[in-house]
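User: These chains co-purify. Model them together.
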Amino acid sequence: MRGRSAIRLARLQQALAGGGTLRLADAARLCGVSEMTIRRDVAASGGTMTFLGGWLMMARDPQFAPLYNLDEQKGSHPLAKQRLCQRAAGFIDDGDSLFIDCGTTLMPLVGTLDAFDQLTVVTYALNVANAVSHLPNVRLVLLGGLFHASSSSFESDAMAASIRRLGINKAFISAAGIHPEKGVSCFHFHEVVPKQAAIDSAGQRILVTDDSKFGVIRPAFFASLDQFDIIVTDAETGQHLQDARPTPEEAGAPRVMIA
Amino acid sequence: MRGRSAIRLARLQQALAGGGTLRLADAARLCGVSEMTIRRDVAASGGTMTFLGGWLMMARDPQFAPLYNLDEQKGSHPLAKQRLCQRAAGFIDDGDSLFIDCGTTLMPLVGTLDAFDQLTVVTYALNVANAVSHLPNVRLVLLGGLFHASSSSFESDAMAASIRRLGINKAFISAAGIHPEKGVSCFHFHEVVPKQAAIDSAGQRILVTDDSKFGVIRPAFFASLDQFDIIVTDAETGQHLQDARPTPEEAGAPRVMIA
DNA sequence: ATTCAAATGTTATTTTAATAACATTGGTAG
DNA sequence: CTACCAATGTTATTAAAATAACATTTGAAT
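Assistant: Joint model of the four components:
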């Protein structure tokens, strides 16, 4: 009786591949073995599966990973993003058709959408799509293609054309770097096309970015600052931007909103 | 102090919008309130959120939905699907480019893919895409469009064209109904186009279906039985199909595999 | 202000899960 | 066949979460 543990683990993994959880008791029955044996199997699996209070699940980090660890909690990053998105959500109206960019910055924005009537969300990010897919009041259009795990987003030749066909009301754009003169940049080159297409075709362009991105340059530039109508940001970045442009009402200057 | 519970729930919901979990203690701190209050809030939320062993999460997140309830467990459906998929996986080779249909039937198939080298998976189903997205050895191509929650899949004008451009090695197709004379059907009309395109363009077509679908007719027909090269099914359906075609080697007859 | 009731906090109790310790089984080498 | 050892099962113990009970706070009406 050698290697049976591996067989059981494979079977459980297969059962859980599509997401979902299993009661410990059910996992045990599924494998025809005692609960203790399942516990030992999972413990020996080296972290591919875990128990969460009696429920077995795949421990793929991003999904299951707690949002805040007690340690990093003082760094109020997630809270900051929530504040930014709360502010950004102020620009949304019932019936809008929104473009939501990839990354984690705009994630809390999705959490605010259930308060509206009949929105449409266009995105090329898998994480955004998953969050939106649960909202009954939001129509979801996902722009597919080849998946890039690094940014949880898709790349496609047809991306730009698809976006231009869609009629986007308001585009919420995120960035990995924002520099007062050089402009706005991101990590991955395949993000450039959809970002630019959304900026081109949207009625209103809203850049959402926190202080940690200010002054930073990342590999791929995709826009200059004055291509945005509104910039929602933290106090520090906001101050910088307003100092750089003493007359924010002048033509082409985005309105800066501090969250 | 009225309606604060709702405010806290909204905040938590927003924090969890992108998926993931929160420790009870962290949720309490996030809202500046005691753990007991969070417990009461969640209990009053009417099932939108739940605790799983001290972790707060969105209840409807498929990631955390239980696969089997103790009650329905006797009906060994999920086990049957696993057996079918195990059998179906036998047709996969390293380097293959696979089409995987929507629904839950083919979900366990994804669980077998980590054993191969360098696969490509093409799908128009969000649940399949999510499962595949975690596999480092599989390239994922998601065919996007307008999302349909009923089947967790996408609809698009460009679907057929996209599929034909892709070069699919083996197409794994699921069905909601399979009838010996009338053919193979599904619930949703928007599934017909991608299914047919995949059947048209794939090198090998593999229908995977369990006994509960046999003799059933659903709203949308998409293929006849002899359009498949292989049918992977349970004992009962397999017997029926073999009886109906006494000479399975005759031209155009699919090979029937009983799992 | 005073009073009341809803909301929240605190503590105690029950239930459940996780761990540890020990007993049993079963395959395999000698 | 027998003795051994890994694998598994069983039971006991510990830790943690869910519930319940009761105390305290807080906001609004009188």
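Residues 68-76 of chain A have pLDDT under 50 and may be disordered.
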